[in-house]
Amino acid sequence: MITMTEIARLTGVSQPTVSRVLNGNQAVNPKIRERVLACAREHDFQPNVMAQSLVGSKTHLIGVVLTDISNSFFADLVKYLEREARASGYSLILFNTDYDPEHEKESLDVVRRYRVDGLVAVPVDERAAGWSGMVRKLDIPTVVITKKVEGMDSVYVSHEEAGAQVGRHFLEEGFEEYIFFGNTEDVKYQGFAKALEKKDPEFRRRLTVISSKKEREIRAALEQYYSRERKRTGIFAYNDRRAVQMLGILQRMGVRVPEEAGLVGFDNTYMCEFLYPRLSSVAQPNEEMASIAMGRLLYKIAHPEDSRTEDHPLQAKLVKRDSSVRQKK
Amino acid sequence: MITMTEIARLTGVSQPTVSRVLNGNQAVNPKIRERVLACAREHDFQPNVMAQSLVGSKTHLIGVVLTDISNSFFADLVKYLEREARASGYSLILFNTDYDPEHEKESLDVVRRYRVDGLVAVPVDERAAGWSGMVRKLDIPTVVITKKVEGMDSVYVSHEEAGAQVGRHFLEEGFEEYIFFGNTEDVKYQGFAKALEKKDPEFRRRLTVISSKKEREIRAALEQYYSRERKRTGIFAYNDRRAVQMLGILQRMGVRVPEEAGLVGFDNTYMCEFLYPRLSSVAQPNEEMASIAMGRLLYKIAHPEDSRTEDHPLQAKLVKRDSSVRQKK
DNA sequence: TTGTACGCGTTATCAA
DNA sequence: TTGATAACGCGTACAA
Predict the structure, then answer these.
(1) Span A155-161, mean pLDDT?
(2) Which terminus of chain A is more solvent-facing, meaning fewer CB atoms within 10 Å of its CB: N or C?
């Protein structure tokens, strides 16, 4: 691949002159300018970013370290992050930790080796011993996304409030028993439970939790659940994947949705609109989240002296659809 | 961030010695070795890849330029590509073209600027004037994935054969009328049509094509379709997204699946197993595809003198589920 | 307006 | 076994 020095040789000028022409900084003799530009175009010159960053100490790379790119929620996020980065002349170097702290550690090392200008991280477990210390020690402008980490810039959706929205929705719709499909350590669950408890201090007696991801076990749990007489049940699944799974199982069991069981998912993925019945789901503002995160990151890169830390809680929004709303008329 | 020169200063040796210690190449005085290693550990030294590549002319970067990361099929692919790359000490620099040739061109420029060691590409339109010329001119080891490009290494699934499988499946299951939901320029369609035509030269009279992505239009088309008496209809959707959409519409219309209409999707995404009825779909061997592509790419990087080009057509496999198979018993 | 000289952080080649 | 020294491709101060 052609270099500035090579172009300089071909056009009979010095390398810095070529640099000046190509960067359009200072004034140069129009004739030389043309000659150099022509030569550069002819050989399709592209500056070596590696060399540029070596001298300029800017790599124009943003490290993205996340847990699972195959999850369409994150894939979506990456798409928007890439768009924002590209618009500002940055590129993404991507790492998938697969929820493995080892991979995460490894990725952070590599990220440092590339001297990325900034880092967008979705931690495997932000509460794990030393995670935030580890990241802070990298000394790279960082924004945590989808999670809140104390003392670090975080852009996230309040899962607690989101869960509460679902709880309130269930109350409005007159559900009287509840199933949470997921892990109760999830903040979504906390908010959900709190909202319900507020109206009904004894709601836990009317709550069933299903955590398994295996169809057989889920089905068994549901069959046991339905082995007694039930009132209208509101089911909250911790993401759309699980919600679709749940919907399928309910349908196979012959439970009518939403008449007997209302269902709400999380992430508002494209299929919500397609399913029958259409699936209610909590929408996270993905594009906004990516945009704010990248905007904040670029600001931090541009203002390294500003060591303040910002918290960006965003609002999720429950999109109510047929799966949890009683048919009118 | 600490450098070798800095470590050299701190430990009172020369910088090349530090390099030797850290790379473990040549023998060095054990005492010095320890001293240097200790210092490196203490400051968590990570070599500057930019500097390394400047001299070594290897960046350990693989450029990934694809059309739409938010499509879970590609997201899945990226996950496996990343895994393979990581295993060989490479990292991914990711570009999302969003099906825009401008973005694609731009991405390829940036990829060159970073002097990536290899490129994995999903072209926006591999038949577009100059695409393959453009990529070839980059002079970077490249593997095209999911598409076949003459004269370039390609790893892909034969969509023609995949479509044919669906056609044969419809024949076996006794469908007598057909809907193709997608664009007829798609090779899937060609294979599908050919397979059916073989048995029934006049099958086109029994074929309806729906290309719109808008629910209203699709529904209108279906209503028109069902305005006359119909035999059992086999519907082939060009991907699972569309298949789910189609399924929802059919269910809303009260068309029974698979009794009145059989449905087959494409990509075999996770939800196929969850839906009711479970969705038949053509499975592409994603992991294998990523693994072969990356393997081939690494080979080409390691053997730049070998300019042969390899074609890797893989077999898709139709996974038959309830949505297209008559219930037994 | 242009060229010389230097430095960024490494690796590699020498000579010591 | 170690240390000078050059080189990679570029940007930038400085001198001309």
Answers:
(1) 95
(2) C
Is B321 among the domain residues? no
Q: How far is CA B240 from the centre of its chain?
A: 15
Domain count, chain A: 3
* Residue A149 shares a structural domain with residue A212: no
- Verify that B243 and B291 share a domain, yes or no: no
pLDDT category of residue A326 using cuts at 50, 70 and 90? confident
Do A171 and A277 belong together in one domain? yes
- Report the residue of chain A nearest B139, measured CA to CA: A1
**DSSP annotation string for B186-210:** SHHHHHHHHHHHHH-TTGGGGEEEE
* Residue A73 sits in the same domain as residue A182: no
Which residues, including other chains, have CB under 8 Å from residue B56's CB and lie 6 or more apart?
none
Within a domain: B328: no
Alpha helices in B155-305 (DSSP H): 159-172, 187-199, 215-225, 240-253, 286-302
Residues B144, B84 share a domain: yes
Q: Which residues of B touch A48 (CB under 8 A)?
A: 54, 113, 115
Nearest Cα residue to B134 out of B121, B148, B115: B121
Write the burial class of residue B144 (CB in 10 Å: 0-12 exposed, 13-18 middle, 19+ buried): buried
| pLDDT value, residue B328 | 66
Q: Does the CB of A16 sit below 7 A from strand C?
A: yes
Domain coverage including residue A234: 159-283
- CATH label of the domain that carries residue B262: 3.40.50.2300
Residues A302 and A238 in one domain: no
Residues 49-68 of A with CB within 7 A of strand D: 51-52, 54-56
Report, in ranges, which bases of strand D sit under 7 Å from a protein C-beta: 1-5, 7-13
Residues 6+ apart with CB under 8 A from B250: B222, B257, B261, B263
Give the CA A55 to C1' D8 distance in Å. 12
Q: Which of residues 53-112 of B touch strand C (CB under 7 A)?
A: 54-56
A328 has pLDDT over 70: no
Residue B76 lies in a domain: yes
In a domain, A328, yes or no: no
CATH number of the domain where residue B12 is located: 1.10.260.40
What residue in A sits closest to B106 (Cα-Cα)? A86
pLDDT at A327: 77
Tell me if A266 sits within 8 A of A160, measured CB to CB: no
Contact positions of strand C to protein Cβ (< 7 A): 1-5, 7-13
- The CA distances from residue B170 to B163, B230, B268, in Å, are 11, 15, 17
- Nearest residue: Cα versus C1' of D9: A51
Whether B227 and B295 map to the same domain: the answer is no
**Over the stretch A102-149, which tens digit does the pLDDT of each residue have?**
999 999 999 999 999 999 999 999 998 889 999 999 999 999 999 999
pLDDT by 10s per residue, chain B, length 329: 999 999 999 999 999 999 999 998 778 899 999 999 999 999 999 999 999 999 987 999 999 999 999 988 999 999 999 999 999 999 999 999 999 999 999 999 999 999 999 999 999 999 988 899 999 999 999 999 999 999 999 999 999 999 999 999 999 999 999 999 999 999 999 999 999 999 999 999 999 999 999 999 999 999 999 999 999 999 999 999 999 999 999 999 999 999 999 999 999 998 999 999 999 999 999 999 999 999 999 999 999 989 999 999 999 999 999 999 987 64
Cα dihedral A87, A91, A93, A97 in deg (nearest 10): 0
